[in-house]
Sequence to fold (297 residues):
Amino acid sequence: MRVTTMMPDVQYAMQQSEETLATATQQVSTSRRVNQLADDPSASASMVRSLAATANVDRYTANVSTVTARMQTADSALSMVVTSLNQAVSLGTGGANGTLTVAQRQVVAAQVQGVLSSVMAEANTSYQGSYLFGGSATGSPPFVNTAVAGGAAAYTYVGNSSVNSVQVGDAMSVVTNLPGDQVFTSGANVVGSLQGLIAALQTGSTTAIGAATTAVTAALNYVGQQRVPLDNSISQLSSQESYLNQESVTLTTQQTALVGVDIAKAATDLSQASMVHSAVLAVAGKVLPQTLLDYLK
Fold:
């Protein structure tokens, strides 16, 4: 009878040692102290909030990466436009020289036409299949040549004036584009000034060529002004990327503190749990058969 009454105690001890061993094994294998809500409800709740914050940081970081690459490509295109416009100013200045013949001015006009073509190629720059200067119309080139066969180039803007933005922080968004009409056909009118210089070189006087060259210079300065907010946004994105990277590290550290486990301690606990479990099984192996025989008697 005395041995029989030990059965519940032995069974309970076995159950407890199995649970302790399972917990220790799981902690070592996962490097986590908390693997389910019941392990630590408070830490689990904090972990859920921290993981949600990590998801936001990851999303913002991806946005920063994508947008930065797009904006750097756009800025590079505008840099090429500036180079082309400087070339056009040089050509116009040379073309205003009164010693040039009509034929020579025609050659210069053809060179400026090449500059215009280069500028329009940059205006139709795309990044990963998305056109950068079309506003929100990013699926097709924003500028098309609508000139009739054999006529002078006549470029038409078919994009829109939408200014796009993207969220890169809980309370931070950045403008991600410059619409093509704003950059190339508004203000000092890059396209119009180049077309005016071409026409002046083909048919105008040195005075007209000089005035047209001045207009191209104004367009050059205008493009430079348009690049300023773009460059500022790129710089802002770089700072935000650094902040997000640090925030990611902070959140990871926080999560480790919430649910992580001291591996050395966990290994010791596992070793102790294994020894206790072996001892309990040894006792059970002696007690349980005797209990069954006593019961049969």
About this structure: The longest strand covers residues 165-169. The first helix runs from residue 7 to 30. The CA atoms of residues 42 and 217 lie 66 Å apart.
